[in-house]
Design goal:
The chain is α/β, with parallel strands linked by helices. The chain has five helices and nine strands.
């Protein structure tokens, strides 16, 4: 089940492709390597534009509220944005986010996952700037993308993704 609204991007990932590996710092400046979950956990990897905005807050707190449900399915939830580690820590502490938030300040992982777009593709973007589209990837224990969801709405998204993970068994 793929919602692929980003087909014009050459780097768009699709179900069945290997998930690009990466290592990024979390809110506590500890490195998190995607490879360490291979063979051990399913991963929900979601990209969001910015800490503290209403949609991003809704999405992060909703995933946090369902964190135990994901854990019961051998799944970890990881959020990625271009914000720095300090911003992630402040966001986490201010709204009670319990999931792992990673900093991709150089947008290298965002590029690998095909979630960058020019400002003209997003209302409110500054001229010439690139922003992160809201996207989620469900990656199985073998490191294969099982679901690639682009341009998602934050409301109800965590429950939708939980159902996708539940049905992977």
């Amino acid at each position: 089940m793929d919602r692929n609204h980003a087909a014009r991007h050459d780097t768009t990932l699709r179900a069945g492709q290997p998930a690009p590996l990466f290592s990024l710092p979390d809110a506590d400046m500890e490195r998190v390597d995607l490879a360490k979950y291979r063979g051990r956990k399913n991963v929900v990897l979601y990209f969001y534009p910015r800490d503290g905005t209403p949609g991003c807050t809704l999405q992060a707190t909703d995933f946090s509220d369902h964190e135990n449900d994901f854990e019961r399915l051998d799944c970890i939830v990881i959020g990625v944005s271009p914000d720095d580690c300090l911003s992630h820590a402040e966001f986490r502490d201010a709204v009670g986010v319990s999931i792992c938030l990673l900093s991709d300040m150089e947008n290298k992982v965002c590029e690998k996952y095909g979630v960058l777009r020019q400002d003209g593709e997003h209302p409110g973007g500054a001229n010439g700037s690139r922003c992160v589209m809201r996207a989620t990837f469900v990656i199985d224990k073998n490191g294969t993308v099982r679901h690639a969801l682009y341009n998602v709405s934050p409301r109800g998204h965590a429950a939708e993704v939980l159902n996708l993970v539940r049905n992977m068994r």
